[in-house]
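sorry to bug you again but im stuck and you know this stuff better than me. theres a chain ive been looking at and ive put its sequence and its fold in token form underneath. id like you to explain what the token line says about the fold, in plain words if possible. anything you notice is useful, everything is just below.
___
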Amino acid sequence: MGCIKIFSGFFPCSNKAQLQPFSKSVSFDLQLFAGEKTEEATAKRKGEARQKGQVAKSTEVNSVFIILAAFFTLKLIGSYIYDELTRYMQLSFSNVATADMTINSIREIFLGFAIVFIKTALPVMCVILIVSLTINFIQVGFLFSFEPLMPKLSKLNPIAGFGRLFSKRSLVELVKSLLKITIIGYFIYRFMRKQIEQIPGLISAELIDSLHIAASLILNLVFQISAVMLVLAAFDYFYQWWEHKESLKMSKDDIKQEFKQSEGDPLIKGKIKQRQRAMSMQRMMQEVPKADVIVTNPTHFAVALKYEKAMAAPIVVAKGQDLIAQRIKEIAKENKVIIVENKVLARALYAAVDIGYPVPPELYQAVAEVLAYVYKLKKRLS
């Protein structure tokens, strides 16, 4: 366990008017700080959070652009909506007074209302849908996750819910809401104070003129409030981005654990590599009895060569240095494989050719001379 010790201080001597130094040890356990989330989130942590639907997104930005899109659409097609509703109401009231109230007449009334509703409300709804999807895509990109919708038993815990109610995030959201209400309320009050003189004139004006003036006032008020909300939404977006970044921060222990999970424990990886080397060595030693010749230098290097008629060139089936070279020669002697001493060729083969690969063309002549000698020796011994 790591710690830091500090030695310092003085104490007064009882019989002398001078200060004598003393040593005092104060230990700080460094493990207490290991759990602090001070490190930036790794790419894996960010990816896992994104798969769970945990992304930096501001609902204020969505709300502002949806309101702007809806009222801007109403401003563009407001006269069209007014004409359609007026025509339907005139037709309905004129027919209701004279028509018999049967099932067919009631069906026609409701069918006509549905058609008018689709013609007037559908354009606005389509614009809101398109703007909402576009703003969400700009903020978080393409993301489709069911994780936030999955039921969790932890959400039913009243103690945890009470804690979330008085958490830091809830407090921040409360402050944001109060600030937004205060600012928007002030701008509404200022707008109404300026336009208060026009409201009494609506009483004596024609209905159409009153509707036009009221619609104009409402649209101007909405656009002014939306401009204020747009500024607030920009601040909220940067706050959400910062808060999301802070929530994903990791401690040093978290990073170590993630590295072990993704890359594997170094001790386990070392044992796996050691076992792989042992298995590779065993397979290589099993090929030594099948070799035609062992070329040595004679103490430090040993290379086992094998050649068959179907091969384009002799291949190296085993090679080693020092202790491995000695083991190759021992196995060769046990299996009566001819050992030829050639210092230059042994070093060249060991450096230039990997196990399982053929001899390069520049060594053909030297290897051919060795194999020719081996074949003559085998023929003479037989």
Summary: The chain has two domains: 43-144+157-254, 269-381.
